Amino acid sequence: MTGQTPAIPGPAPHRATATADRLDAAVRVVTGEPGCGRTWFLERAARAFAAGPVVRVRADPAGSAVPGGGLRTLLRALGEATGRAPAGGSGHALLDALRADSRPLLVCVDDAHLWDPLSRAALGDAARHLCRTTTAARLLLTVPGHRPPAPEFGGLPVVRVDPLTPPEASALLDEVTGGALDGGMRDEIVDAAEGVPALLLALVRRLSPAQVRGDRPPPRPPAGAEVLTDVAGGCLDGLPPGPLDLLLTVAAAARDDEDTAVDRGLVLRAAGQLGRDGAVPLPDLLAATDDDVRFHSELLRRTVYARAPEERRRAVHLALAGELAPGDPRALLHRAWAGAVRGRELEAVAGDLPSRRLRCAAYARAAELSEDGPRRAERYTAAAGQALLGGRTHQAMRLLDAARTGTAPAVVRGRAALLRGTTVLHDGPVDEAQASLLHATTLLADHSPADAWTAALAACDAAWAAGDPAGCLAALERCGETEGHDPGGGGPRADYRLGLRALLQARFEEAAVRLRRVARDPDGSASSGDPEDILRAAAAALMLGDLAGARRAGARALAAARTLDTVAAVPRAREYLAYAELRAGRHALARTHAEEGLRAAHRAGQRNTAAHQHAVLALAASIEGETELVAGHVAAALGTARRHGLAQAATLAEWAAARADLGRGRPQEAADRLGPLVRPGARRGHFALWMLAVPCYVEAAVSAGQSEGARSVVEEFALWAGFGADPQAPAQLLRCRALLAPADRADALYRQALDLHDTAGGDFERARTELLHGKWLRRRRRLREARDRLGAALVGFERCGARAWAEQTRGELRALGAEASGPRPAGAADLAGLTPQQLRIARRVAEGATNREVALTLSVSTRTVDYHLRKVFATLGVRSRLELARLVERAEKTGAHP
């Protein structure tokens, strides 16, 4: 970096997450691909270890030829740290030195694979002995993840330092640049680095101050040969030409394909064309089976390809093309990479390639080979479409930028505007997306009515996400204008448009008829096979309150997206599934879908979809009363929602925060948060969602002594309940009326609400009604009835993991002088003291998961996992993961888990 660019420190703490918590195990082998921070992991571990001496040894490659040299170095370091001179220089001496003192001791050996065989064998034997015995010594070894593990360390427990997720990578860049890095530039670097921290830092160091600010475009390519060589080239040093050619052949065969395993026979035949006979052994940088071969490290594959001379890359591609079967479109693509075909030839076969990434690469290469500007724009647009469907949002935007030309036909510019608007709808300000999509509708109306309809409906989706009902109606009118010019514009498409319009205009009976056809017509949208059509069926089912139908359609959309390699549809299919389960009161299933959807959204670069998943996770967590977890998901959802104008996600997140307050017995705070969302005015929440929060608001307002403010919204809620789109709404309406009713009517209303809950299902909502009824009965000294009602509420809350409400219920039972729960089997009392989130973490840790693995599974930060794990240890009175695993195993075997 030059000029006044912010100074960039070394590897950031993100790469060494959850180090101290790993030290309760006697031995860990730390591995990961180049640049992911194995050495930094050891440094963090050494700084975190305060219980005793720390011994750090880094293997010296120059001394690896001396038998036992590494072992003697380690023994000397141990002697200096402990003040005990080891007896002899054997493996037994090492084990004795590690066990000689009862004081805690941490030994860190970096790059243990570089030691001589004798030293590796002694170290591996000592590690296995430590695993089998009780000792205060702790041993951490690092070995590379881009080669097969040394056999001397086989069977030892492994910690893998994985690449960063996109949010983690963005956070790292913001941290090291002090937030000065332009958002678009940050996205470019995150995309190019593919989660490797060292590559992220190397890329940002190359930027000029103007590039950091976003005033100048980034270097092209973002991660070229020079920077890749700086980060990972050392792993290739010393390789002779034969193995290098084999590596280059594998790298070229896997270029731009998500399946990085390539046919072994193809590689060997192509290498033979290059003058390399089959006697050249495969380098250990490759993982091979009888049929396939691939790199252990994707970073090394990129480095091998990027640093090879251009003429050698062309020769390899021609050799691969010559060995593929006649008519295989991949052969033409390889010849195109070698510069041996024309763009029109490649364009003709691009659609026949087996994956979205290869099709994208073929259209992009055909565009590069084009001399005609309009044809180049058309091919770049086609490439962008494949990138977007394949879940490569940032790549799609780069290709669309390359496609910009004023000389392209209106239909090409219209399709580019449609793709740009769709991309921004997934990951950007939704008002910008809406404008681009409406522009696309205008450009496409006379040339491609079907695409124009798609653009107009997507503009409606953008207005919906922004909470703009007038914008939705305007976009739906544009849809209607295109249907008459489109032979396929009737049927389910027309029903969906007209049903949605009727819903927005509060003509509920017409809306129900139209939308029901879309959701249930076996020959229409729900069975067309296109994930987008199936997702419309899921949306229609959700609008109707047909939650079973929404689940079926969501599952079909998910299966179709996977079958058709439409990665972009996977996060949205998960979003619909999560909403359906959430509305049905199945919070655990909603959480599962949202966690999977969040990971898929991050992989696909869909931050807007990720914001919705965070909102669902916040709502699911809010019933558990996990304040920190709810706050984390709410902050993540609102952070994106406020930047991108996502009123829908913001409303859900605010509702989740308020529901968590209500569960913790803070009705005033909940009412203050929910009041602006549900009462008329400029701050009212999303037009399709605010009524979902009304029952929470009424409960909070009445508990806070603000009943008058709740009466008006109940009558509006009654209209929503009458539509039938929410199976819980009729019972919730009666519960709200009971809260506001005089004493002579409340009891009957509560009982009617409970009768409706029997039909609607859902443990959580029924238990909330039982709790409120039980409170009402207790305050009127009808103690026996109150005890029955509160006991039933407690069972319901415990069944669905609503710990905060369960604690409220226990408080009410204690006020009655009743026991909140009966005796538990031996071993359960400890686990019963954990919150649902702590219990999930405890079980995963007991199964052997690391804190990072638990964090990824639960979509929380490792700091959150560390916090909860400390609480678990304190609650259960255990001091190590081993003790925790034994306690959990004992509870599971006896059936004594809560």
Describe the overall structure:
α28 runs antiparallel to α29. α4 (117-132) links the parallel β3 (105-110) and β4. With 898 residues, this protein is mainly alpha-helical. InterPro entries: P-loop_NTPase, Sig_transdc_resp-reg_C-effctor, Tscrpt_reg_LuxR_C, WalR-like, WH-like_DNA-bd_sf. It holds the Pfam family GerE. Keywords: DNA-binding.
Produce the secondary structure layout.
Layout: E1 27-31, H1 38-48, E2 54-58, H2 69-82, H3 91-99, E3 105-110, H4 117-132, E4 137-142, E5 158-160, H5 166-176, H6 183-193, H7 197-205, H8 209-213, H9 225-232, H10 241-253, E6 262-263, H11 264-273, E7 286-288, E8 292-295, H12 298-307, H13 310-323, H14 329-337, H15 343-350, H16 356-368, H17 373-389, H18 393-403, H19 410-426, H20 430-444, H21 449-466, H22 469-483, H23 492-504, H24 508-520, H25 531-544, H26 547-563, H27 569-583, H28 587-603, H29 607-622, H30 627-644, H31 647-663, H32 667-678, H33 694-703, H34 708-723, H35 729-740, H36 743-760, H37 763-779, H38 783-799, H39 803-815, H40 828-832, H41 836-846, H42 851-858, H43 862-876, H44 881-893
Parallel strand pairs: 1-4, 1-5, 2-3, 3-4
Antiparallel strand pairs: 6-8, 7-8
Shape: flat
Mean pLDDT over the full residue set: 86
Q: Roughly what fraction of the amino acids lie in strands?
A: under 5%
Which sequence of strands runs across the widest sheet? 2-3-4-1-5
Largest sheet composition:
5 strands, parallel
Residue stretches low in confidence (pLDDT < 50, at least 5 long) are 1-21, 522-527, 820-829
> Which class best fits the helix and strand makeup?
mainly alpha
Distance between the termini: 56 Å
In helices, the fraction of residues equals 55-70%
The helix tally amounts to: 44
InterPro entries: P-loop_NTPase (IPR027417), Sig_transdc_resp-reg_C-effctor (IPR016032), Tscrpt_reg_LuxR_C (IPR000792), WalR-like (IPR039420), WH-like_DNA-bd_sf (IPR036388)
Pfam family, one: GerE
Organism: Streptomyces galilaeus
Protein name: LuxR C-terminal-related transcriptional regulator
